[in-house]
Amino acid sequence: MKPNQSKGGSPVHQTVAGKIKFQSAGQSIQIEFTDQQLSPHAGTATFWSFLHQSGWGELVGRCLPHPVPTSNNALPPLSKVFSFVQGLLCGARKLTHVAYLRRDPMMPALLGIKRVPSQSTLTRFFQGFTGAGKNLACFRPLFAWAMEKLPSKPEGYALDLDSTRLLHEDGHQDGVAVGYTRLGTKPCLHPLLAIFSEVRLVAGFWLRAGNSGCANNVEAFFLDLWANLPSHLRVRVVRADSGFYLVELLRLWEKLRVKFIVVARLTRPVQSLLRRETCWLATGIDGTEVAELEHREADVPATARFIALRHRIKEKSGRAGGKLLIDCPGYLYQVLVTNLPRTVPPLEVWRDYNGRAACENVIKELDAGYGLPQLVCQDFWATEAALSFGVLAHNLIVLFERKLGWLEAVTLGSLRYWLFVTAGVISQPQGQTTIKIAVPTHERHWWRKLWDKLLSPYPNCDAVGTRPASA
Known about the structure:
This protein is an alpha+beta fold and 471 residues long. It has a domain at 248-348. Helices cover 34% and strands 19% of the residues. It contains 15 helices and 18 strands. Strands 4, 8, 9, 10, 11, 12, 13, 14, 15 and 16 form a ten-stranded mixed sheet that branches. A three-stranded antiparallel sheet has the order 3-17-18, with no helix packed on it. A three-stranded antiparallel sheet has the order 5-7-6, with no helix packed on it. Helix 7 (132-148) runs parallel beside helix 13 (380-403). It starts with 19 loop residues before the first strand and ends in a 16-residue tail after the last helix.
């Protein structure tokens, strides 16, 4: 007896269609197909419930430079933004990856769109960002919106300036140029970022070509950021590494009455001070000593203090920062420039600067979690738009976690495993769109608490655990 024949017009000749089976650990497993409306990303319903009630979508719709489509079949620009953000949350690294979500039957209902756009539609969407003016007009309000969600602090926030190199070696797109990276000279992009490291929120993002200098256009970047800050946010101090040690930038901060801590370049005059009989003071940390230098440089604000640190090399493992001087073997040296008052001891200045290390973790998360090095379009301004939406997606996740009461850092990769990559079935019994999430019985109490927190119109202190309890 033959098994059931395959139905349909293909294959046209008589062929036996056998069942699909494979062996696993000594048992036979049979594979079949289903017509149920299944999704592997039903858990992202939690994020979209937060986003739809936040007002972010309405703001994006007003800020986008694209005209409203006249065709009934055309997708509104906001649908493309929502699809792109959802793709990033689901692990997309290219526009083609985002387009794969068209196979997911739950996406239109979750995102509130007609359908997920194709790769070519997304490409044309980003080509609508044609210049710096359009990009600034679109993204300045979106970054300001995220900052407005932060609570005010009497002492203020620390704002960290940094730049990063986004390696991109598989194309010849605008802006991708050979620059200095940790891996040598490589084709890359070189964006500027400003980060509130204490809350992991990115306050500003500008893209630059890979061969641009570290401090290129940084004054204009800071002035734009300063004008975009919400009125209730107070900046306690600005911190930056030696790439931002510019006299013009220091004088700008002094003019704006902004406190700063910047790593100074170890020029010959500074090195000569380190070689002299400097009065080094113990810090309580093995191998690390601190001293305040009586030093002035031309055009540097008169309020600037020069604070030197030296770290004994054998005690330096695991701590970054410092430069080896040939004339002073055995130590790594570092000099900080600050306009904090002299009532702040040198050791406290150094400890304050060390808090800047948190911004490096944010940059790593943007690279690993949101795939910034791969989100490169042919046109420079289109690339800046795609990367900006990637950074904004990070800000949205930070605000989503704060809504749930999660104040500790949670990576997007962890969220995918704990929350987003949760299967579900969508159906419409009696016209009511229903999503059934497939979670074990012992996890359902955690999921109910999570939904209660998200849907509550009032802020409360009932924080939700970062993951469901184990069985």
